[in-house]
Amino acid sequence: MESKKLEALLMAVDLGSFTKAAEVMGYTQSGLTHMMNSLEREVGFTLLERGRGGVRLTKDGERVAPAIREFLQANARLDSTIAQVASSRSEVIRVSAFASMAMHWLPSIIRRFREERPDVDVDIRMADHIRSPYELLAQGKMDVIFVSHQEEESGYEWIHLQDDTMYAVLPKDYPIDGRTGYPLSEFDGRDFIMPAQGFDKDIMRIFNRVGVKPHILPTAVDDPTVISMVEHGLGVSMMTELTLRGRGDGVLLVPVEPKSARELGMAVRAGKGRQASLQQFLECAQTVLAELEPK
Asked: In sequence order, what DSSP letters do the residues of 43-69 get, joined into one string?
């Protein structure tokens, strides 16, 4: 069983879309779809549910996904070690990032960095939980992480990149009455579908600050499923502009008031001597982001 097929499977699930996964991995959508069909034939059962709201794991897929992640992590470590031994290249920059940042930012950053430093490899890992990049950085398994700022974490140097504005995610028929903003107080007591994988921390920080207590529904679903549930009138939600980019056709998106955001940036280990290639990568990322996301 080819590891590339398994990587494509998890990428499609993490991003909720064959189209977005194909873009990040450099495949055509038809090519990636063919890979998934081939993988399902190999395992002998259906791994993905495909629908208007995107793709997600079936129950059988959810059972095997943790083992697939463990296999790919071990395989990646082996490949990285073999490549470094066999290649004349001696430097690898290890990067972990949230899915939204990996999809919208990293391809442009890495392309520019390769032009500047073709002798340095960049090893990317998608974060499957809000805390995992910080843990990997603390353990010395990552050189830089692209994340939202978590004040309770320690031992790192923070480099601010952008404030990612929060939007109310509402059904199309929600009575917004021409308003250009959605008061945070209007979430109070309302059925609320919370993003999973620890990303509720950024949202709850905002709610706690203003004393708002929505009725949080007992769900543990990915971002595309949250949006689909809102589209079908099962509740409301709140997500950031970068997370929602290209995904909001079936729902109403309104910036919250007062204006709120999560702070996005890069974190590197504090108190460590920084190799020249890593410093160049950090500067490259800031330059590219200034061009991609002008203030």
From this structure: HTS--EEEETTEEEE-HHHHHHHHHHH
pTM above the 0.70 mark? no
How many other β-carbons are positioned within 10 Å of the β-carbon of residue 62? 12
Q: How confident is the model at residue 83 (pLDDT cuts 50, 70, 90)?
A: low
Structure tokens at 250: 């079936």
Q: Where in the chain is CATH 1.10.10.10?
A: 1-87
Judged against a pLDDT cut of 80, whether residue 241 lies above it is answered with yes
H helix and E strand count, the chain: 11, 12
In sequence order, what are the residues at sequence separation of 6 or more whose Cβ sits closer than 8 angstroms to the Cβ of residue 37?
A: none
Q: H or E element: which one contains 9?
A: helix 3-15
Superfamily of domain 163-261: Periplasmic binding protein-like II (3.40.190.10)
Ranges for all domains in the chain classified under CATH 3.40.190.10? 163-261
* pLDDT tens-digit readout, 137-177: 888 889 999 999 988 777 789 999 999 999 999 999 999 98
Q: What is the largest CA-CA distance in the chain?
A: 63
CATH topology of domain 1-87: Arc Repressor Mutant, subunit A (1.10.10)
